[in-house]
Structures are given as C-alpha cells and as structure tokens.
Design brief:
GO biological process, one term: DNA-templated transcription initiation
Protein name: RNA polymerase sigma-70 factor
Strand order of the largest sheet: 2-1-6-5-4-3
Strand content: 15-25%
Shape: elongated
Largest sheet: 6 strands, mixed
GO molecular function, one term: sigma factor activity
Distance between the termini: 38 Å
Subunit structure: Interacts transiently with the RNA polymerase catalytic core formed by RpoA, RpoB, RpoC and RpoZ (2 alpha, 1 beta, 1 beta' and 1 omega subunit) to form the RNA polymerase holoenzyme that can initiate transcription.
Structural class: alpha+beta
Order of helices and strands: HHHHHHHHHHHEEHEEEEH
CATH topology of one domain: Nuclear Transport Factor 2, Chain: A
Organism: Aliterella atlantica CENA595
Helix content: 40-55%
Amino acid sequence: MNRLELFNQNKSLLFAIAYRMLGSVTDAEDVMQEAWIRWQRSESSVQCPKAYLSSTVTRLCIDHLRSARVQREYYIGTWLPEPLRTETLAAPQNCPELAESVSFAFLVLLECLSPTERAVFLLHEVFDYNYDEIAQTIGKSLSNCRQIVCRARQHLSLRRPTVSQANYAQDTLIEQFLTCWNQGDVQGLIALMAEDVTFWADGGGKVVAAQKPLHGCCKVARFLVAIRRSQLTPNIAPQLGEINGQFGIINILEQKSHSIFSFYFSGDRIQAIFAVVNPDKLRAFQLQT
C-alpha cells in the first residue's frame, strides 16, 4: 500500500479524533492536511501507520487548542462548537460511546478540560487506546496518563447533568418544541423546558445574537418567540434535521442556513439549547441546503 492509500485507510479515525478534540470541522480538516504533509515527509520505515498518524493528529490538536484558548479570550460572546451533519460522522451507529462523544452537549462539556486532559480522556474513554499507546502519543508516563483520565472524569462528572432519556423521547420533545415555536406558544415552550433551562448563542460578533447565556424557562421561551416575531428574520423557516448524531433544528432564511439549534435533555425536559448563528460555522450546511 502506498502512502496515500494508508492515509485514506485511517482518514475516518483521524477526523473523528480531530473533530472531538477541536469542536470544529474546519480546524479538524486543517489538522488532517498538516498530518498528511508530515506523513509524506516521514521515514518509509514507520512500523505502524495508524499509531503514527493518530499520534501526529493528537499532538497537532493539542498545540492548536493551546493557541485557540488565547484566541477565544477575545471571542465576542459565547464560543460553541461547529455543528456537524450526522451523515458525515465517522462513528458507527452501533457504538454508543462514539455516538455520545460527538453530541453537541458533550463537546461543550469537554471545554472544561485542558488540551492534554481532553486528548488523554478521548483516546482512552472514546477510542479505546490503552495507556501504553497514549503515553507514547503525548510523551507522559503511564501513571500520569491514568491520573489525567481520573481527573478528567471527575471534572466532567461535576458538570454533567442528569442522564437524558432515549432518543425517541428526545425526538418527540423537539417536534413538540418546533410546533410550539412555530405557533408562538410561550406556555407550550415553558412546559417542554426545565425550570433552569439555559439558552446559549454563538454569533461570533458577526451577526445579531445574545452575547450572554439566558437562564430560566420563562425568559428563554419569551426570547424564542420574540425571535420568530422579529422584523430581522420575518421569513425564517425552521426544519428538523440530524446534527451531531441527534435531532435538532436547522433554521433557513432566504434559502440559506441562518442558525442551528442543538438540544440537551434532563429527564423529560429540555435542559439546554445551543444556537450557532456564526456564519463561519455554518458553511458545511450552506452547501447542502
């Protein structure tokens, strides 16, 4: 097998690692391009191409996250991950761990981890790498890697809300949400949301969006209805779609994707709504609408 064939053989895995690490399709593709360049320049005697490539991608992602954290200090408003269409996912549908790890809420949750914690946690907990492989990848001892995974689990458990219901129940809730939203039914929306629901919006300073999270079902419901009645988006057309492995809403305006709504659930209520409005993060959707 030549180098291109070996790279393509591992391409799905490399993208899966890079996207979960970075929360950005664009950045993940850039990292893969750099990994391809390094792979071409590498020695022909590489014993295990998969290990070499995944290690290269992981290290590139760690470096990128360290610089991205500085950039996000100057980001206008809330930073949210870049949405990904379900059909482009590398994760097999019969693997719950991979499916959950690409959900929007999980990617947001990972933001509480440092770049190294994120890498070690994902490689071990999601991609089933053993500690020997991880230690070689990030240049740390076995005991240190074990400690990092333990620390990451603790950080995530403190922030992870109550486990949500099965997908079919979530899908029904989102369908009901869309119906109430279309009808401007404030009370109907309130009934679907947890009392302490949070609405997060990412406009990146490029379009009008709430720069601070909104808390509370009454405030969020009224805000959502106000969006539908706004003169800025009089012809917005919401439609259901699969986003990051889960049901969500794609809002179309003038035949273009205006925003993406992703959801997180607690029991039988909507616990969080993530609205990506930044046009730079909707490019992949513009090509398919």
